[in-house]
Amino acid sequence: MRAVDAFRAAYGREPERVWHAPGRVNLIGEHTDYNDGFVLPFAVPWGVTAAVALRDDDTIRLLSLQASGGDETQAPEPLVITEFGQAEGWARYVVGVFWALRQAGHDVRGADVVIDGDVPRGAGLSSSAALEVSVAMALDDLHGLGLSRLDLALLSQKAENDFVGMPCGIMDQAASALSQEGHVLFMDCRSLATRAVPLDLASEGLQILIIDTGVHHELADGQYARRRRDCESAAARLGVKALRDVTDLAAALSRLSGDERKRVQHVVTEDHRVEALVGLLRAGAVREIGALLNASHLSLRDQYEVSCPELDVAVEAAVRGGARGARMTGGGFGGSAIALVADDRADQVREEVTRAYQERGWAAPRFFPASLAPGAHRLA
Ligand code: GAF
């Protein structure tokens, strides 16, 4: 295994644990997690492998096989972190997990770590959550902390919120830690209860195609925080704890205006779409979910305003090419769209999307067929 070979070469000893944690696609339920709502992600077959051995001091040595810029001839040097504040860039996601465990009162000292990831770069498939969760699972295992997968997802989220400074919700970390192969993960982000819902696409002659737009608009992080603020101020104005609690949408909308009104329209209807989609899956009507995917995209584009031309064109072209439904997935402003496609239409959908990009002079998008992969697991 590459991470183990690199560990031996870098540190001259064996790793004590090797854990893998996956990235995710969200089938539906976008920007609902931080509104105490519902989400329906699943784990993808790409993720992050963390090889870890404990140290008896507080130093964290860190090596990423992806940080050398692809220059295989250059044996990369590990970063040596003796104080949390020294971590920069990708290292913050790893060091943040050590920090969060200590904050929670766990006696976690230093470690030697090698990271090896294969989540397509910039595709918006949550490589950062995979990174956090792989390290959290390995440290829990090595220290015998006995924390639940949910606890480790929450600690990983805390690392991202309070150490990295990205105010994300719980969805991505939960998907990475709790997903089961062949299932989507239904999560109530208020109670944190989860249920694995089986989804057998192959037996229906269907597939989910990931369309990586290849773009990442830099405004993403600031806009994410602004959307959260819009939701919080709208909830305060409506006198509810979170937008999850809005039961009469028409009455709520009549009391709001501008951005707050649009955000509420999206979040409340998106929660209903998640429940409707789960209902269709339970009824064995997977072919019917496409309309909900399309409606989710329109709502994210027009009401939540987190899409971008590259995502819109991918979704429109996929549907034109015969997809049963398509939508942006993840935070937005770039990253990936997903399309539900009959197997015998997949080539046509790819061609239609590729042609639409070509016509606009955009770089070709990449396509990945998604499978519903297992959540985090120990490799060695
Ligand atoms: C990002 C966040 F990290 C998630 O918590 C979630 O809010 C998502 O955007 C939007 O649904 O991936």
Account of the protein in words:
This protein is globular. The protein is of the alpha+beta class and 380 residues long. 40% of the residues lie in helices and 22% in strands. Helix 4 (149-164) packs antiparallel against helix 5 (171-178). It has helices at residues 2-11, 91-103, 127-143, 149-164, 171-178, 220-238, 249-254, 258-282, 290-302, 309-320, 346-359, and strands at 17-26, 38-39, 41-54, 60-64, 79-81, 111-117, 183-188, 194-198, 206-216, 325-328, 334-342, 366-370, 377-378. The chain is built from eleven helices and 13 strands. The termini are close together.
Query: Average pLDDT across residues?
Result: 96
Shape: globular
Task: Enumerate how many helices there are, as a single number.
Answer: 11
Question: Pairing-aware structural class of the strands and helices?
Answer: alpha+beta
Give the strand order, joined by hyphens, for the main sheet.
5-4-6-3-1-13
- N- to C-terminal distance: 10 Å
Major beta sheet summary: 6 strands, mixed
The total of beta strands comes to 13
Function: Catalyzes the transfer of the gamma-phosphate of ATP to D-galactose to form alpha-D-galactose-1-phosphate (Gal-1-P).
GO molecular function: galactokinase activity
Catalytic activity: alpha-D-galactose + ATP = alpha-D-galactose 1-phosphate + ADP + H(+)
Binding site for ATP: 64, 122-128
